[in-house]
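Table S2 (text version). Query chain:
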Amino acid sequence: MRTIRHVAVLLAFLVLSPGCLSLFGGEESDSELVNCELEPNNPDCEIGGVTEDDCFFNEVFTGDYCRLMTSPENLDYGEESLLLVVGQTIQALTPSFTGDGPQNWLINPRLPEGLNLDLESGVISGVPESESPLTSYTIIGKNIVGSSVYIIDIEILSEPPENITYFTNEIFCTLSKPCGISSPYNSGGLIENWEVIPALPLGLEILDSGAISGTAQQLGDSNHTISGSNSGGSAYTDIRIITIHEEPVNLYYSSHFFQWFLDDNIAESPNIEGGEIINWTIEPPLPDGLTFSQNDGSIIGIPSELHAIREHYVTATNTGGSITTTILISVQDISPTNIRYEPYLLNLIVNEEMSVLSPSWSDGTPESWEIYPNLPQGLTLDRQNGEISGNPIYVQESTNYQIWANNTGGYTETQISITISSLPPDEIYWSESEYVLSSNTSVLIPVTNNGPYIDTWEVSPSLPSGLIILDNGTISGIPDSRTDWNEYTIWANNTGGAVGLSIWIVVHDLRADQNDLLRGMSEADFGGWPSPILPIGEWAFPVAFESSGIPVVSASHVGKGKILGYGHESWVDYTNHPFSLRAVEWVCGENAEVGLAYGAGFDDFENKLQDAGHNVHLSVTPSDLTGIDCLLDEFWNGHDDNDNTALVDFMNSGGGVIMGGHAWYWSYSNTDVAHNYPGNKIAKSTGLFVSSDWGYNDVYFQNIPHEYSTISNAIAAVLADRIDGIEMANDDAAVAYSALSDCTGIVTLDYTDFWTPLRHLVNQTGYTVIPYSTLWSSTGYELGADPVADIILRLEDALMFSLPADELPIHPSHVEFPGEVPLNATRITRTVTVNGTQSGLPSNFGYSNPRSSLRMSTGLYAPPGEIITIVVDEEVSELGFSILIGAHTDGLWNKEIIKRHSRIYRTWSIENTTTVVANAFGGPIYAYIPAGSSFGEINVTISGAIRAPLFVLGDTSDFEWIYSEKENPAPWAELVSNNFIMTVPSSEIRNLNNPSQLMNWWDRALEMEHELYGFEPWPRVERAVFDAQISVGWMHSGYPFMAHDLSVPDVVNYTHMSENGDWGMFHELGHNHQWMPSTLPGTTETSCNFASVYLMEDLVGVEGHGAVDPEQRRNRMESYFNDGSNISNWSVWTALDTYLIIKEEWGWDPITESLSVYYDLSPAEVPSSDNEEFNAWVLYLSNATGYNLAPYHSAWGFPLNENTYAALEHLPVWVEDPLRSDFFSYEAIIRNLDSDDETTSTTDISWETYDNGTNTSLTFYYGTIDMGNQSSGWSSSQYLGGTSVGNHSTTITGLSWGTTYYGRIQASSDDRTVWFGPISWTTDYPLD
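Corresponding C-alpha cell output:
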C-alpha cells in the first residue's frame, strides 16, 4: 500500500509540472507520454502490487487482493462411523468443508491410542493399538471468524486370530483312560472363546487355553472343527479323535488239550483280562455238535462227529487289538457192533440192476468197510456206508464174502452169499429208429446192449450195398448206391434165446436226384419274377439256377417224403416246359394220386397230369390228405399251424409236396420273412427257405448244379478245409461261398440245423481283423483271394448282425475301424429327448433314401460288445421305433479289397420298456425313427454308453465345445446344424475351435440347396457320414450321404470350405434334391450339379470345376452340335450346358420355379415316359421364363411334340439364345400367312415372323397352280428379304383379273429351307 501511495504522489507531481520541466533537472526530455491503458505492458506503466503481507489478520489474500475471511461450514469426513481392527493401518480421513479453512482443530474425547488428528490439516490417521467400544467423537474445525463441527463414531475390534495349530491333528484315546492334547499355537489376536463342532466325545472338553482333556467314555472315530474367536474374528482347524478299547491280554482255557467222546456234554469257558471283547472267533471250526459262542468264547454242546487231534485257534478282538490262544481238541468214537445185511443170501441176474443192499449195526458208526474176496464184476461195495449195488456182468455160482465195518473205536464183521444167473437177449436198441444215410459216405451206427452178452447178429433183408453188421451189432461201411426207405430186422442171439429188432434205413444220393430231375431238360423262360429257394436242410439241394446264379428251384427229402419248391407259384403248373411233369414224377412217383390245393389256381394242370398217367384230386386242403401221394400248393398260402403240422407229418410219413411262391413282393408290406412268410413256417422241417430277394425267370434246367452249390456239401467241405486241413480248390470254394452267402444274410440263427456247424467253424477259426487303410492304399482284405476265408467273413457278418446283445463278442477288428474306446472312458446313464415326429421325404426324391428311418443323435457311443440298456415308458415302447448303433451303414461286398467289415451297425426294435442292445464293433447310438412318424418328443434313457463329442449349433457354445464337448472319449463325433449333420472321426475335430462358424457355413450351404430346388420347408436334416470305404464312388447320395474319411480335414476346416468349397459334396447333396419326374432322361448326374454350380459361385465365389470353364463348355457344345445334337448323347456335362445357358440368361429362379411345379402334380399329371418328361420340362420352363423355349430345346435334340409347340404359341420365342449362328442353325417360323385387299391385278400378302431363324431370308412364291415346296415349279416369286420378328406385309402386282392364285413363303438359310403355306386368293373382275 505504501508503494501505491508513493506512486500516486509522484503522478500528481508529474501532472502539475510543465511539459518541459524535467524531474531530475531542467533539461527538456525527448520522450513522449505513454498511454498505459493502450500499452499496459510498457515498462513505464509498471507499478507495485498488493501482497499477502498487506492483508490484516481477519483477511484472506486472494492472489490479487485481500478479502474478508469467512467461517468454515459443512465440515465432513465422508464417513459417519468407522469399524477398525487393532494393528491395521486405517485409510487416512481427510476433511472437506465450505468457506475458509480452519486454523485450529479440536476433538473430544481423545482418539483411541494409535490414532491422531493432524492439528493443521484435520486429517485422521494411524494404527489402532487396542480394542475400543463404539464411541462418538466430536471434531471442531475453527478459524478467527467461526467454526464447523462433525461427529464420527469409531469402534475398534481386537486383532482376529489368524491360525490355530495343534502339534498334531489326531488324538488317540483309550476307553476310560485320560487323554487330550495341549494348547494350540495361535498367530494373530488373543482368542477369547473356543467352540467345537460337532461336540467332543463324551468325557472330553476344551479348556480356555484351547487344550483338550478328559477321560473318553465312548468308542468312536470322529472329526471336529475347532474355532477360536474374539471380537475381531475367528480362526479354524480340524482334529480327529479316535477312541479304542484297552487291548485284551492273558487269554486261556482250563486246559490246553481236550479229549472228548461222542455224546459227551461239553461246557468250557475262557479267562481273559484287559478291555471288553467285541468279537470271538475260532479256526478251524469245531466238530459237529459243538458250538463256539461269539459273545464270550465259550465252547458248549454234544460232539456228534469224530474229530482227530487238531489245533484250534481262539481269537478275542476289540478295537484296541486282539489276542489268540491255541487249544487241542479230539473226539473219539465207540466201536460198532452187531452188523447185519438183510437178506444175506443174494440171487442176482446178469445185466439186471440189483436193489441196493444196506447194512444195519449197533453202537458206534462205521467209518470204513472192507470185503473179501472182491465182489463179482459189476458189483461194488461203498466203502463209506457199506452199501452193495451194481449190475452183475457174469454168471457165478454161490460164493461167500466176509465184510468188516471199522471206526476209530474198533471193528465188527459179518458174512453174505452171492449167486448170479443169466437171461436171454434183451434191452438192445439203436439211438434212432430211422437212419438217413448219404451214399459214398462212411457210416457207423453203434448198438446199445444193456442186456446179456450176444453171441451172434443177423439182419433181414440184407443191408444196403456197402454196409455190414459187426460182431458187436454195430452197422458200419460206406453205402455205394441209393435206396428207398426199407425196414430191417436185426436178430441178436445167445444161449438164452434170440430177439429181433427193427430199424428203417434209407440211402440218399443227391447228385443222382439232381440227375433224375434234370436229365434231358433245357432252359426255361418262365413268367414272373421269382424268389430264391434256398436249400438249407441237410438233405436239400438246388435243382436249377437263374441267369444271375441264384437257386430258384430246389428240392429236399423230408422224412420219408419229398418236397420241391419253385421260386414263383406260376411255375408249378407251367405246361410249356417238361420240367413241371418231371417234378411231379420225382416227388409223387409214377401214376400217382396227385392233389391240387384248394385256391392255389392249379386246376388247369389237371389235364396235363392225367395225360401223364396221374389221377388228380381237386380242392385238396392240408386238413385232409388221405388218399393222395402228393400235394401241389403255394408257398404264399393261408395255412395255419395245424395245416403246417399236417403237411410236415404228411411228408415225414412218405407224402410229397410241390410248392411255388415268391416272397419279395410279400416283404414290401410284411416283416421277418424267416418266421412270418407262410412257406417258411415249415422251412425248418423241409429244408427249403424262401428268400425275400428276387431273381430272373430264365431258368437253366440244362445244367447239373455244382457239388458245392448244395449247402450241406458246402458246409462239410468248408469245415474239412479249416478244421481238418483238407484244402478246397479255389473254384470249389468260390461256389461254396456263393451258396452260403445267399443264405447267411437272411436265414436266422434259430435255424439251428443250418447254423450250428457254421457257428462251430467261426469259433474254431476266430474272428477276422481287417487292417484299416485309406482309399488310396492297397492295404485291406482282398475278397476272392481265399474264398474259404471269405465264407468265414460272411458268417462273421451274419453273426454280428444277428446274435442277441448278451452273446455279442468284442470284435477285435473294431480296433482298426471304427476305433477303440479308451479303457478309462466312463460308462454313463443319460436320458435324452428326441423328436419323434419325422415326416421323411416324399418318395419321388429317389436318390435320397427318402423313406429311410431318420437318425436322432443322442451324443452317446456304445463301446464294442458291451451291453447298452434302453429304457422307455410303456407308451413309447409301443410306438414302433428302433435303436441304431453305428453310423457306417454302407455294405462293401461288391468291392475287391475292403477296408473294414461290411456291416458294422446293428438296429434293435424297441418293443418293451427295457431293451438290451449292443454292437460288436461299437458305434454312435441313435433313436431310429421311421419316416412318416408323428410320435412327438420321446424320452429315452440309455445306460452303459460313453460320451461322444457333439456340437449342436445354437445349443452348444464354442466355449462349451472347446473346454468340454470335443474331448469326450468316443472315437466318432457329430457336428449338427439346423439343416446338416456331419459324423466324423473324433481325431479330426480335437483341434476344431470354431464349430459355430463352420456349421453356420454348412447350414447356409444346405439352406441354399433347399432354396434352389424349391421344395420348402425341407422336412429332414441331411446327414453326411465319413467312412474308411463306401459302397460306391468317391461320395454318394442318400440318407446318410456318404464320403471317404480322406475328405474330413477339409470339410471341418471353415477357411478351406469358404475359400474352396467342395463340388463333390454339393453334387451328392444335389442328388438328394432330385425329384424323379423332373430328372430328365440322361440327367441323373446333371441336375444334381445345379447345386454344385450355385454354391460354388454364390456361396464360395469360385468356378469350382474345370468342366464349367467357358472354353471347355464351348468345345463340348461344338462337338455335340457337330455330331447332330443327338439326344441319346445328351447327358452329364452337355446336359448341364443346356441348363446353364438358361441360368445365365434368367438366373436360377425359372429353374427353381419349374422344378417346383412337379411337387404339386397329381398322379395323372406326372409324365410317365421319356418323351413326356422332355415335353413337360419345356412347357414348365417356358412358362417360368415367359418365353417359348421349344426351339431352343429342339436345337438340343429334345423330342418335342406338336402339343408342346401349340401350348407355347402365345409366348415369344427366345431369339437371343447363344446357340444361334455359333452352334446351331435355327429354322424360321412363319405364321398367320394371309392375303387380302385383292384387286383385279394386286393383292396384299401379310405374315408374322414368329422365329427369325438363323441368317434366314424369305421369298414369296406364287402362281395359278400350287407347286408345293418346289421353287422351280412356281411361275412367279417375290424376294422379301431377311427376317425379323414381328408382323410384315408386301403387295403382289401384275396379276390377271378374275384368276385364282396360290402362294407359299420359302425361308432359306445356309443349310436348310423351310416352306410355309399354302394360301390362295382370287383377283377381282373388272367393273362393267
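Notes on Table S2: The first strand starts at residue 59 and ends at 61. The chain has 24 helices and 80 strands.
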